[in-house]
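Q: What does the predicted 3D structure of Sm domain-containing protein look like?
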Amino acid sequence: MSTKELETYLSDVGSSNQFETNSSKYVSHVKKLLYRRMLVGISDGRFFLGTFYCIDKQGNIILQDAVEYRSTRRSAPSPMEQRVLGLILIPSSCRKTCHVDCSIDEQLSLMSLGEQKS
């Protein structure tokens, strides 16, 4: 799933009016993403790789068995440092990118959600 599609989808889930009118559609799609590997990039340049555990109405994401990856230097290319974190909450305000490990059929299904919104 592309970052733009997932970001659009997650922002719709976080929007209360949109969520209330289409809750069953969004809830069913979120359920399909549960327990999938998710890579989340945040605004300070770090990435978190973990298992998607849940999302709330505000768009905050909880990952379990998460590992943090960060650059050890400011210059590119630099080696990545990693550390195991466990269960973490990533606020929607910090989130820049999201990638979910899913099949092509699921990617197409999620893309159709963004098209229906327009």
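A (community wiki): The structure tokens above were generated from the sequence. The CA atoms of residues 35 and 52 lie 5 Å apart. The mean pLDDT is 80.
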